[in-house]
Amino acid sequence: MTLPQIALISLAIGLLIGIALSLVVVWAYRARARMDEETSTTVPEGVTDVLGSMDDAACVIDTSGLVLAASLAAARFGIQVGATLDNPELRQLVRGVRATGGTATESLRITRGGLSLDPRLVSARASVISPRMTLLIIRDVTEQERLDQMRRDFVANTSHELKTPVGAVTLLAEAIESAADDPAQVRIFAARISAEASRLGQLTGRIMSLSRLQADDGLGDVRPVAIDEVIAASIEAHVVQADSAGVDLARGGDRDVWVRGDAQILIEAIGNLVANAIVYSPKGSRVGIGVRADGDIVEIAVSDQGIGIAEADRERIFERFYRADEARSRRTGGTGLGLSIVKHAIQRHGGEVLLWSRPGRGSTFTVRLPRIDSPVSGDVKKEKKRKKKREKKAVKAAAARVRNGETA
Fold first, then answer.
1. Could you tell me which CATH number the domain at 47-140 has?
2. What CATH number was assigned to the domain covering residues 143-217?
3. Which of 61, 72, 328, 331 is the most buried (most CB within 10 A)?
4. pTM
5. 352 three-state secondary structure
6. Vertex 377: Cα angle to 376 and 378 (nearest 5)
7. Residues 222-372, CATH architecture
8. Which controlled-vocabulary keywords does the entry list (predicted)?
């Protein structure tokens, strides 16, 4: 074998050895990178920033259940960085995802902040982001569930309430047809049909009012509203009802108080309180409507001396179609929507409704609304300022004329 051949063979062997060593080094680096990845508890770059911008509760958890990073909202569920994830259901979800290496979503009821009260319905989603870390996102859907349930109840209750007058009208129409030869009976049935039709119209009207109040649109005609006008209109609309029931209506309290809102909606809301007070008051009693201005708040209280509301009913009295006294509501044609309309109407005006009641002593509904300055008094103040400016201007002009006369 010649020398050049030996050199070529040596070169080839050296090249193969170099390639093998390079492959070994690359493999070693990759193996170390995999090992570091499997054993690392460092949160990936950017994940912390993403968590900080999330509105939902979210956190990164290692294999021991330790929270490595968390969003601000996670604190509502007692999840803190450096602490372990305490909730057993969430831990079970994370363990299941880590075992399969995928993603899973479950609906759970958990408590917030480790409290035993106030369970929340959440949609929890867990995803593996590394061999030792799992991302957990918790979305509170309690309010959404409540709204969905309210919609379902509203449809069911509305259907049930509409069936009664519609069914009555149908039966009465059949009764009229069968009593065509008896004019007296026809008149009686016709009067009852008219009453049922009136009740049906009242129910549909209140359903439409409640739907408008619960819509996302703002109030229609927003302007300064005089509470004096609201009280006067509410009382005037129910004078006949009060006279028929033998109940006196009395108005008292502060005058010239103003709020901002829709006058018609406020009149309907206060009117509903007055109407309820009349219905549940005994003959010869009094219903009082009082107004009190307290700083930036105006309070409108409607009090009666009626049967009162049991403690068990007070929490639900503002629910749609809820009646504390079912028999009396049916007898008087009540729809069970009046107080619900009051609550939503006042809330749309930035206020609240408070209730005080004692069985056998009566009830007081107090409406609290943000107060504004009287626009009339504001115009008077502006006119006074303009008058002072005119007077100052006139004095300056007269002084200037005097100076000019002296110099002349």
1. 3.30.450.20
2. 1.10.287.130
3. 61
4. 0.50
5. strand
6. 90
7. 2-Layer Sandwich (3.30)
8. Kinase, Membrane, Phosphoprotein, Transferase, Transmembrane, Transmembrane helix, Two-component regulatory system
